């Protein structure tokens, strides 16, 4: 079956068409500037050259229409008609406490996702528009919702409750939800498979280090804690997000700088993290180059980044009563040997030794630790689109 995986943002739409039998990506692409002047679609069919089409996309339905046209195009397409798409899988950011797993989309599911908009005002409305656009264009094709939060719904109360009056949890559902769940699930399962072991026998710490970054504790197959919280702002220092702060800082800086909460939120989400700390870039390649050229702030930023990540690994080791596997994934985790090595240097107390020669490789499945290491340290490339396609296939087959 050919499955269209859609990740719909407020002004963008990423897609992949995946053949569920071979798990090959037949085509992928990105619509940008939806609803903003200067729209464009970048599309690439496997084995063909990348093309860019400039066209205004006043709303998401036009974008979905353009994706279908690109997929069925005689020259750049990969399918003869819409009928070849067997199902659509949507990445949905927030499922609140309502969804502990993926589901086939029904009217009730749409309503429940709507009810979670409060918790992810930037993401869920865009995800819903993606669903509605696909329904409009492909009314008979089953659609599935795969939630970023679902895998972490197994966290116990002691991990998800904040030290706030309990009524805020009761009234507004203010608690830790965690994100990147599809990736933490996929990577922990793959790490166990690479070792020829059952995930249910392992305590795994997954370090998803991309632009957005989070660490999770996966104990015997279940997420028991994760660094992101009510929103994806908590936890690690990220590309442009600050991660953990003393909550009093928000009011303190807001007052000094005369910033509204919205403006302060912008600072914390878009101008902080390694970008704000270094004053150079949110991209770790630029930071690495600057540090190598002797830039002290770049060095300090990378050190702070690695230190924060190592602290979470220590915390989650305690949370699980030990750790068997530490798996690095996403852009930085898969490719940045220097960051992995800096984090690894804190982990010797766990009896962890990293083979620096293996650590110099990147972008592939790897075991970085030496055979004597008490904890297995690995690189496991994530593939959220494939995970969504697998979930969609499973649900569609179960329904039959
Ligand atoms: P997103 O959260 O946007 O999906 P990614 O997982 O793609 O983010 O991660 C983006 C980060 O990965 C960037 O900071 C980038 O510097 C880093 N990265 C990607 N490729 C490399 C590489 N070859 N070497 C070092 N860092 C890399």
Give me some keywords for this one.
eight-stranded mixed β-sheet, globular, 14 strands, binds adenosine-5'-diphosphate, 400 residues, 39% helix, alpha/beta, 15 helices
What is the distance, rounded to the nearest whole angstrom, between the alpha carbons of the first and last residues?
A: 14 Å
Helix content: 25-40%
Heterogens: adenosine-5'-diphosphate
The count of β-strands is 14
By secondary-structure content and strand pairing, the structural class works out as alpha/beta
Mean pLDDT: 96
Beta-strand proportion: 15-25%
Bulk shape: globular
Number of helices: 15
The major β-sheet equals:
8 strands, mixed
- What is the N-to-C order of secondary-structure elements (H for helix, E for strand)? EEEEEHEEHHEHHHEEEHHHHHEHHHEEH
Read across the widest sheet, the strand sequence of neighbours is: 5-4-3-2-1-6-8-7
Low-confidence stretches: none
Radius of gyration: 21 Å
